[in-house]
C-alpha cells in the first residue's frame, strides 16, 4: 500500500511540477533577438512633496490649528498658480507628541498632512514657490524630483526605436548566414530598470538664494523588447 502511494504521488508531481514547453516555442525555423533603445530628455516638470506639521496640547486645538495650517498652505500654492487638479493631500496622521527633554514625557499631540503637487521647471516659478513655502512655519519640504510632462509619448517613441533596433539585428544575423527574416511571431516588452527620477531635498534652513540654483540635467528612458521572426531560406542558394 505504501509503494502504491509513493508511485501515485510521483505521478502527481510529474504532472504538475515537471517543466512545461515554453509559451514561445515555435515549430518553424525562427530567429529571436532583443532590441534596445534609450532616449535622453530634458525634464520640464518639478514634482514637489511637502508636509504640514502642527503641535498643540489637546486634540481639539491641534485639529483646529492643523486645519488652518493646511488650508493656508493650499491657498498659498493656488496663489502661486499651481493648478488645483495637481494638488493632493494624503497621509493625514494624529499622534501623541512625545518629547525626551528633560525626560520622556507626553507633550500634547501632533498632526501631519502631506501635500504633493507639480509645477513648471522655470527658475522664476521655482524661486517663487520656494520663497512662499519658506515663509510658512508649519511647512517643510520632504522631497522634490524632476520629471517629463509627456512621458507616455517619450516611452512610445523609445519603444518604436527598440523595435527598429530588433529588426536591424535580426536582418544582420539572417543575411550573414544567407537567410532572411519573415513575419513576426512574437513581440514581448522586457522589464528594464528605469533610473530613479532625479531628486533633491532641502530644508527650510537653507537661504532662498542658493535654493533656486537647480540643475535638472536629463532623464533617461530605456526600453528593451524581444522579437521573434520566422527565418526564411534563399531558394537560389
Walk me through this protein's architecture.
The protein has two domains: 19-42 and 151-233, Translation Initiation Factor IF3 (2-Layer Sandwich); 45-147, Protein of unknown function (DUF541), domain 2 (Alpha-Beta Plaits), CATH 3.30.70. Helix content is 33%, strand content 38%. The protein has helices spanning 2-17, 59-79, 123-134, 151-176, 208-211, and strands at residues 30-41, 45-56, 88-99, 105-120, 139-147, 179-190, 199-200, 219-233. Strands 3-4-2-5-7 form a five-stranded antiparallel beta sheet. A hairpin with a 5-residue loop joins strand 3 and strand 4 (105-120). The longest helix has 26 residues, at 151-176.
List keywords for this structure.
237 residues, Translation Initiation Factor IF3, Alpha-Beta Plaits, 33% helix, 38% strand, elongated
CATH architecture descriptor text of the largest domain = 2-Layer Sandwich
- How big a fraction of the residues is strand? 35-45%
For the largest beta sheet, what order do the strands appear in spatially? 3-4-2-5-7
Major sheet size, sense and barrel closure: 5 strands, antiparallel
Helical fraction? 25-40%
> Would you give the CATH topology of the largest domain?
Translation Initiation Factor IF3
Count of helices? 5
Which spans of ≥5 residues are poorly predicted at pLDDT below 50? 6-23, 200-212
Sum up the overall morphology in one term.
Answer: elongated
CATH 4th-level superfamily of the largest domain = Protein of unknown function (DUF541), domain 1
Derived from helix and strand composition plus strand pairing, the structural class reads: alpha+beta
The count of domains is: 2
- Helix/strand order, N-terminal first: HEEHEEHEHEEHE
The strand count comes to 8
Q: Between the first and last Cα atoms, what is the distance in angstroms?
A: 64 Å
Amino acid at each position: 500500500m505504501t509503494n502504491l502511494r509513493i508511485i501515485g504521488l510521483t505521478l502527481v508531481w510529474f504532472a504538475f511540477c515537471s517543466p512545461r514547453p515554453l509559451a514561445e516555442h515555435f515549430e518553424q525555423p525562427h530567429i529571436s533577438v532583443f532590441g534596445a533603445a534609450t532616449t535622453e530628455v530634458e525634464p520640464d516638470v518639478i514634482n514637489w512633496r511637502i508636509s504640514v506639521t502642527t503641535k498643540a496640547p489637546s486634540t481639539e486645538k491641534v485639529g483646529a490649528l492643523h486645519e488652518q495650517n493646511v488650508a493656508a498652505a493650499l491657498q498659498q500654492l493656488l496663489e502661486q498658480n499651481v493648478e488645483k487638479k495637481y494638488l493632493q493631500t494624503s497621509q493625514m496622521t494624529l499622534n501623541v507628541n512625545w518629547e525626551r527633554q528633560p525626560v520622556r514625557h507626553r507633550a500634547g499631540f501632533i498632526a501631519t498632512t502631506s501635500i504633493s503637487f507639480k509645477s513648471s521647471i522655470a527658475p522664476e516659478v521655482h524661486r517663487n514657490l520656494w520663497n512662499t513655502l519658506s515663509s510658512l512655519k508649519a511647512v517643510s519640504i520632504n522631497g522634490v524630483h524632476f520629471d517629463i510632462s509627456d512621458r507616455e509619448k517619450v516611452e512610445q517613441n523609445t519603444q518604436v526605436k527598440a523595435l527598429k533596433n530588433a529588426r536591424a539585428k535580426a536582418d544582420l544575423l539572417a543575411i550573414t548566414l544567407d537567410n532572411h527574416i519573415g513575419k513576426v511571431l512574437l513581440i514581448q516588452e522586457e522589464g528594464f530598470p528605469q533610473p530613479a527620477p532625479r531628486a533633491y531635498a532641502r530644508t527650510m534652513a537653507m537661504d532662498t538664494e542658493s535654493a533656486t540654483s537647480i540643475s535638472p540635467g536629463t532623464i533617461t528612458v530605456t526600453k528593451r523588447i524581444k522579437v521573434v521572426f520566422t527565418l526564411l531560406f534563399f531558394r537560389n542558394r
